[in-house]
Amino acid sequence: MAGDKTKVKIRNTTFEDIPNIVELQKVSFPLMAVEGAIWKPRNLESHLRVFPEGQFCAEYDGKIVGSISSLIVQLEPEYKEHTWMEVCGGPNFENHDPKGDSLYAADVSTHPDNRRYGIATKLYDARKNLCIKLNLRRIIAGGRLFNYCDFAQKISPEEYVKKVISDEIKEPVLCFQIKNGFKFIKILPNYLKDSRSLNYATFIELTNPHYRQVT
What superfamily would CATH give domain 5-207? Predict the structure, then answer.
């Protein structure tokens, strides 16, 4: 049953939120937590130091129930194949480039008990508003192929994505991203160590309709 969406509050993350976000990561990504692929406190501290405007969290009844981490990058060429580590410069966001043209969506997490509260959509909206505010050309990301492990013996990652887009396969991550306006560009192999996606991800893009080229 969906909760009261009006009670979800989105705000910028603070240093005081870090312990709660670490716990949120553990329950949001239990398999990745076992593999050690979730934020550590020092990573979140670095995000706030290099790009505080790009870090958001969601509160519900005073509890942190969602968070996103972002950085600004410049890809050359614009659809360059990359891994998560390469584009972010590691978990501390060492590749953050204030002069870049793309907001990179490095992470989104929502508490499993609150996943029908519109939290992820509100967090994505905060990211879209930030993209417009900073006059960035686009938002890009690598999205996990969350259920690909169930289909890998039968179809390729590209075929899997086609079936998700045509609504033949239900995929919680990609379906959500498409619903929020993102366009599939291509498959990124070896993107991130993840047993569910077999390390595959989708390169997705959302262009900023208000972007003004600076001469």
Answer: Gcn5-related N-acetyltransferase (GNAT) (3.40.630.30)
